[in-house]
Amino acid sequence: MARTIDLMQVSHPGFSLYQMPTFDLEEHMPMYMEYVIVVCTRFKHYANMSQQVITMICLTDICDIMAQMSNTDDPIEIIPLRNELVASVNKFNELCEDMAACIVNESMATDFYLRLGQKTKQHCYEYAGVED
């Protein structure tokens, strides 16, 4: 059985960013996304132990799209990337809802995954200049 503190990766420096309502995206978004990856990797570890298959390709897509966006300011490139980001972030939010649904008898962990999806969506949209 997974411990909530392990699932939430509270010792990672990105946990403090998770707790903040907002932060300097240019400075802290890479650390926040690293934290999200670590949290999801830890969840996947426990899912694999339970013989459950978890696919997190949407998270990889988000990171790839954001990297591409940081390398251009050409509207011809940015607009399609924004659309791809919205689709990937929405899939990730759904993934977080699915992860939350896997948690039994631990409301703090359930809330954590729900908030992780919502916060990641908020930060990614803000980073990309997308309105919700």
Along the chain, the helix and strand elements come as HHHHHH
Number of helices: 6
Radius of gyration: 15 Å
* Fraction of residues in β-strands: under 5%
Instruction: Based on Cα principal axes, name the global outline.
Output: globular
Strand runs, count: 0
Identify the notable features of this structure and list them briefly:
single chain; 132 residues; mainly alpha; 6 helices; globular
List the helices and strands and how they pair.
Blueprint: H1 4-8, H2 14-19, H3 25-49, H4 57-70, H5 75-102, H6 107-128
Helix pairs in contact: 3-6, 4-5, 5-6
Describe it.
The mean pLDDT is 92. The protein is an all-alpha fold and 132 residues long. The chain has one domain (4-18, 25-128). The chain is globular, with a radius of gyration of 15 Å. It is built from six helices and no strands. The chain has helices spanning 4-8, 14-19, 25-49, 57-70, 75-102, 107-128. 24% of the residues are buried.
Brief summary of the model shown:
With about 130 residues, this protein is mainly α. The chain is built from six helices and no strands.
